[in-house]
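The authors assume throughout that readers already know how a fold can be written as discrete tokens. Each protein is reduced to its one-letter sequence and a matching series of backbone shape codes. I therefore recommend that a typical entry be quoted early in the introduction. For illustration, here is how one protein appears when written out as sequence plus structure tokens:
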Amino acid sequence: MAQEQQVLYQSEIIQNYRSDTLNYDFIANLSVIDTSVTKGDVKIYKSRLNNLIKDLPEKGNSKKRETKRIKKIYDLVHDALFTKYEDIAYFPQIFNEGIYNCVTATAVYAYIFDQIQVPYHVKESPGHVYLIAYPNTYNIQLETTAPVEYGFLSMSDSEIKKVVDQLSKMKLVSKEEIEQKGYQEIYMEYFFGDGDIDKKGLIGMQYYNKAIELYVEEDYESALKFIDKSLIYYPYAPSEYMKKNLSFLILYDSEFDNIETVENFLDIFSELKYEEDFDKHDLNYYLYKIVDNDANDIEFLESSLNVLSQFSDETVRSHCELFLLEDILRKYLKQDDLDKCIFYGKRLLKNNPNSRMAKDGITYAVTNTLITLPLSEQSIKEIEKKEEEFPFLKDNIRIKSFRAFTILKLIEEAYISKKITLGEKYIDDLELIINSTDKTLMVNSEMIAYAYLVSGRYYYRHNIYPKAKHYLSKGLEFSPDNKDLKKHLNWTIEEMN
């Protein structure tokens, strides 16, 4: 319970900072990097610093006196708080063990200078931070990593001139620049650049350093949490790079057996630029992890599809959807779930109108659905409806064959029930199907011949001999040796003569 309260205290401090980045508790934000720190601990840290401030010398009224005063403050603080320098150190360690580094020591001086109203800049250079007091006048550098005798530097005007003249001799700066800007500005630009950071950056750097420590220990998920916290305080370029690197490492090691990992995949790649930071091969590596995990069922793949459909980049979104849709469709085909095959086939076609797999899946589902229907006019309408929805079905030989088979049955029923006009229409429909395909229909030729026999026999019995002859002759084209067709055709010809 105590540990939970301490974590909540850290969350509260960070949330308060995010709500008001101007009026925040600097010491508390520095301290809660250690989640064991309590509100009482922070109070103690402030008390020690404030008691130290009470004994600091008064402000001087000249450059010489103020420089001497800053040096004195530097020494007093060092003696009172700093015992051992370590590359990796965090703010609470100053008060518990006397351990410090450049970040935490600079933070102490920043707090103290704020209280005694000494203007300063926090300077950043690769792998290091330090502080300059009176940056616009005295330029007093406080090197917060070194022992006292090396930690304080105040360059005189003559020393600054000497250094800049040397830069001019080396042609690192021009005489025109010196004349235009003056020795002081050239010196500051060259040696300190524009690496000023706000003191809140010191808080962010602590979290960054902690992330690096965890990264070395290969605890990538914890490291990523600290990087995210570092970015709350300081948009530090190395933090952004580290976040990207950690995210990929976490994804790379993930089994992709839970939806949270898929959501991480979405979050990480959403912050990257397609073709600049990654390409389709990178996407495929992780998509294969999703579909190749035997523990992931169709429901998981469908949930993954819903997550990755949230990509704002159209190319990335479409690629992920196509990849998962194909695998989902493949699995539903294997299960023979015809309705799902049609549903996901349609989604796949929406993404890629030329998808061979989508067309094959829909064709399979539709044809296997049709064969369960009764041989009726309603079935013909259902076929037409599907062909209108999926035009590529019109040339499918199985669907044409089923349609022909149904029409053969309807021809027989029409002539038996003496619906002759309807029967003739069905015969026309049948011939249209036969003439529109260059493939052999999957219908027995004897069945086609029988339909013509039924119609020809009807016309023969009703003395309509020309039509009888026409249909009986057509039937013999499909079954030249059919005895009934031959017999009725001979009788018809005899009657006509």
Observations:
- The chain has 24 helices and seven strands.
- The radius of gyration is 43 Å.
- The longest strand covers residues 120-125.
